[in-house]
Design a protein that fits this description.
Layout (H helix, E strand, L loop, with lengths): L30 H7 L1 H8 L15 H4 L36 H4 L8 H4 L61 H4 L2 E4 L2 E4 L61 H4 L76 H4 L55 H5 L14 H4 L16 H7 L1
Length: 441
Amino acid sequence: MSPGDLATPHAKLEGMSNCTQCHVLGDKVSNDKCLTCHKEIKGLVDKKRGYHNSKDVKGKDCATCHSDHHGRKFDMVRFDEKKFDHNLAGYKLEGAHAKVDCRQCHEPDYVADANLKKRKDTFLGLGQQCLDCHTDYHQKTLPNDCAKCHGMDDFKPANKFNHDKADFVLVGKHKAIDCKECHKVEVKNGKEFQQFTGIAFKNCNACHLDVHKSHLGNDCKQCHNEQSFVNTSALSKFNHGKTNFTLKGKHKAVDCAQCHSMASATPQNVFQDRLGVKTSECATCHRDPHEGKFGVDCAGCHNENSFHKVTASNLDDFNHALTGFELQGKHAAVDCRKCHTSDNLTDPLPHNTCAACHSDFHEGQFTPLPPNGGGPPDCAACHTTEGFAGSTFSLEQHAQTKFPLDGAHVATPCFSCHLKQDKWRFPQHRGALRGLSRRRA
């Protein structure tokens, strides 16, 4: 009853007792019975994948393409490999894949299923991920989605990779550098390997030699940019506050070369010529117009906004003793401009006597009469800088006048004799005071 021998793959089903393994009694070959044995095909059909789910095959009976009983050597799987439309298999051949012989991909080494691996001529069992067939060049250091970076034409270059989407965006001359300059090719696990992850890049020194030998810190971008190492246009953004000399006032607008010697500088010593200079050491850079007369604490009078603009607030801490005239008593509270009336505070002022600045309150009452003529005694003979009110004139001094105090006069208060009207007056004793003036002269 058999129309012919079964093909070799079905040979074990020969015999009358096995007909119903494939045939339904009184009917044709059952697709369901085919798929009961050919589970690998059924799995793809159920998942709506593969060639048997394509528009050219879907809905056809298995026997339409895979008839049997044509002899042991009959090839049940017949198609022209060169004309086969691979798109129907659910995997479009692109680029280099379209030029490769079928058996370079469809070979047992690339089949994961142990049973299918045994079928050397099968076209089943291949995965669609790159690493199902290709060796992982990156050795698990990158994700498995190779197509994000690589095209189908060639593995190199990775023409889909966009460095702008990486953590390190290429700018300036970095764009023109060959990948190998940063991503070194080496040998890992006995195979060629190129590192693309785990590369330090937060700091320029991770790749570039620090020609400044760490003298200027690690933030290279404060001075340099990616266009050129010698392009220092970014210096304008340098944070001088990270040094021990914070720029204030007009110092901010000064070109670096006005303070630092650039002409003879080398990468090793550039900007090192002012190390250790403090913001209070003005004379290190600036000429001292006072020629050392007022010491070196320029900030006592001046600030960084203007050398010529000196205000009272600048002078609060000025040590006036440096001028040769120490401020004592009420002099210490007097505004500078009360005494220094000229534009230049350093213009010399006579200060050897009180009368050089103060008017004669006594209006010449103590000026000696002829023949002992001359100037009046200095105010300091009777008064102090703590205040004009009151007098230090003592009994001992009164004894040196023409009217020494004797007897009850010694105990008599001054104002009993020196009567005060609008001010204290001493006209009745003018001649008596000549001796004081003469002796003090």
